[in-house]
Amino acid sequence: LAMEQDLRQALVDGGFEIHYQPLVDLRRNEVTGCEALLRWRHPERGMISPAEFVPVAEDTGLIVELGEWVLRTACAEAATWPDRVRIAVNVSPVQLKCPTLALKITSALAASGLKANRLELEITEAVLIRDDETALAILHQLRAIGVRIALDDFGTGYSSLSYLKRFPFDKIKIDRCFVSDITEIDGSSAIVQAVVNIAASRDMTTTAEGVETFEQKELLRALGCTEMQGYLFSAAKPGPQVRQLFGTQP
Ligand code: G
Ligand code: G
Ligand code: MN
Ligand code: NA
After folding, report:
1. Are 16 and 34 in contact (CB under 8 A)?
2. Distance from residue 141's CA to the centre of ligand 4 (Å)
3. 7, 30, 110, 149: least CB-packed within 10 angstroms?
4. 102 C-alpha vs ligand 2 centroid, how far in Å?
């Protein structure tokens, strides 16, 4: 497979970079975190989206090594940020099955000096579908380290409310498909309201993804959503550029 070879080469050559997209607290109106989003600068094809190469990295097992690089690099970057700014890292279901994940996380925290409570792991619900008991045990193990755990892309795929009962996530990320039509008549505002209410009743916060307009932002605030993420505030940017946003009002 050509792409597998290129991915291996990129890991050796430093062909990957991480861009950081701000997470904005809707009440305090400030940046309280950033999501680490992987980018691949391909020598011939230019920037390639993770939507294209992460599935290949998962199929080949390369995601374990690549994910460890993301974790270590993102933690080192975040250690230079103000204390109130957390770092959110996406963890693939393949990484979650790796028995040394907890060790790698502890090691990335120690190497960077980042406090565990400033690291948030974003996990998709696919993890919980495949292997319930093992997945839950691993999530509890990670929680014991002191990191926060977010349920990513909530509401897409095979979402079930029972996952929220079986594991106490710190945060639910509401998928952008519910945000894009939220201001329309018969749009998703009632669904978002329901998710916000469930989250609040179980001490979880909510982050709305893909917020692009002022109207969406104001409605999400009114619905009680905790955080937002999206082009309205900022796209993902390289570290030196994103840090300039930490002091400013969104
Ligand atoms: O950044 P956006 O451009 O296109 O990301 C597309 C998809 O890739 C998203 O679903 C995102 O969660 C995923 N993604 C981005 N960075 C990482 C990463 O470091 N690890 C994993 N597993 N997925 C990532
Ligand atoms: O799946 P995950 O949520 O981890 O990845 C975030 C994805 O959403 C990335 O591909 C990122 O580039 C994209 N994204 C971030 N903000 C916006 C936005 O405001 N609108 C749209 N359409 N996509 C966004
Ligand atoms: Mn994510
Ligand atoms: Na998401």
Report:
1. no
2. 23
3. 110
4. 27
Domains of the chain: 2-235 (3.20.20.450)
| CB-based contacts of 98-106 (< 8 A; 24+ apart in sequence) | 98/64, 101/138, 101/142, 102/138, 102/141, 102/142, 102/145, 104/68, 104/71, 105/71, 105/142, 105/145, 105/147, 106/145
Q: With contact defined as beta carbons under 8 Å apart, do 118 and 86 qualify?
A: yes
Which residue puts its alpha carbon closest to atom 9 of ligand 1?
Answer: 51
pLDDT in tens, 163-189: 888 888 999 999 999 999 999 999 999
Strands 148-154, 171-174: pairing is: parallel
Instruction: Give Cα 190 to chain centroid, integer Å.
Output: 24
The answer to whether the CB of 51 is under 6 A from ligand 1 is yes
- Which ligand 2 atom minimizes the distance to the CA of 232? 19
User: Measured from the CB, is residue 49 less than 6 Å from ligand 1?
Assistant: yes
Interface pTM, i.e. ipTM:
0.97
Contact 154, 177 (CB under 8 A): no
